[in-house]
Amino acid sequence: MAAVLLDSRLPLVAAPLAGGPTTIALARAVAAASAFPFLAGGDKDPAALAAQITELRAALAADGSAPAFGVNLFVPQAPPPDASAIAAYAERLRTDADALGVRLDPAPIHDDDAWRAKLDLLLRDPVPVVSLTFGLPDGADIAALRQVGTRVLATVTSADEALAARDAGVDGLVMQGWGAGGHSAIHDSAHDPVVMPTARLVAAVREAVDLPLIAAGGVDGPAAVRELLEAGAQAAAIGTLLLRTHEAGTSPTHRAALADPSLTETVLTRAFTGRPARALRTSFIDRHGAAAPTAYPAIHHLTRELRAAAGAAGDAQRLHLWAGTGWRTAREEPVARVIERLAAGV
């Protein structure tokens, strides 16, 4: 019998939504609804992450909820091989930047998302679960987290990645399907994730690796939850369905776009961050997506101010409107209603 990965009554997980949508209020509401919350540690200052962990623990204790939650981390990426490609992309984006009153710095910025500081934090102050996205760190880092009692999950997009994660010593997997919104967790960002229903990927990974797993991507209702559980997942993760909830920190421009009937499809693009990510299709993606270099986080840093200005100006066409294939079923409602509706598939 596979080990149980998560301590929650319902086999439902709130995916970590970096960049603002995941809030303490959202995580608290997820736990109160008997699902499992994650904090988004990626692209976040270590001190801010430490404060969120402390605040969530206190909130769960005050609510009488189980003190069970996870923290997601971005695994460091290799530096971009070609600085000239980033400078050329910055020049390409000049007209868009000028329209928003932003100056782009073509000098590449590369960092490891404060990996060591965040790891040290989680070793000093362990949390129940840590999930890893964008690849695998050194096996010693995984072992260190497990040594302090943390269950470590690796996010994978294929059976080959699942095998590598198993060999690295993780406790379980988050199997991310092609239809997931936001960044693909694919380990080699020069490639796109395989086009396959998430349930089929779950079945393929379960044949290859004897590890418990959570399934993510394309969860748009109770039928999708049921399908993933029947395929062998321990739980289903939801992300896009939470973006319009009352407790989410999603920006007003992003919220409005998710309900805009003129935006009719999602696409995978590197246009905003240099790593494949699923977003609502916009004119910015149409103009620049094919030219964007594979260079995360350098492109992420390059476009950061442009995206912030677009959001502040209500310019949805130049904003990274992360959304999965099931975005049409995201509603303006409390988190509890989302969990209640999806629980019908359990």
From TrEMBL:
Reaction it catalyzes: 3 propionate 3-nitronate + 3 O2 + H2O = 3 3-oxopropanoate + 2 nitrate + nitrite + H2O2 + 3 H(+)
Cofactor(s) it depends on: FMN
PROSITE patterns per UniProt: DHODEHASE_2
Name under which the protein is recorded: Propionate 3-nitronate monooxygenase
Taxonomic superkingdom: Bacteria
Family the entry assigns: Belongs to the nitronate monooxygenase family. NMO class I subfamily.
PANTHER family per the UniProt record, alphabetical: NITRONATE MONOOXYGENASE-RELATED (PTHR42747)
One record GO biological process: 'de novo' pyrimidine nucleobase biosynthetic process
GO molecular function: nitronate monooxygenase activity; oxidoreductase activity, acting on the CH-CH group of donors
Pfam families assigned: NMO
InterPro entries: Aldolase_TIM, Dihydroorotate_DH_CS, NMO
SUPFAM superfamilies, A to Z: Inosine monophosphate dehydrogenase (IMPDH)
Keyword entries, A-Z: Detoxification, Flavoprotein, FMN, Monooxygenase, Oxidoreductase
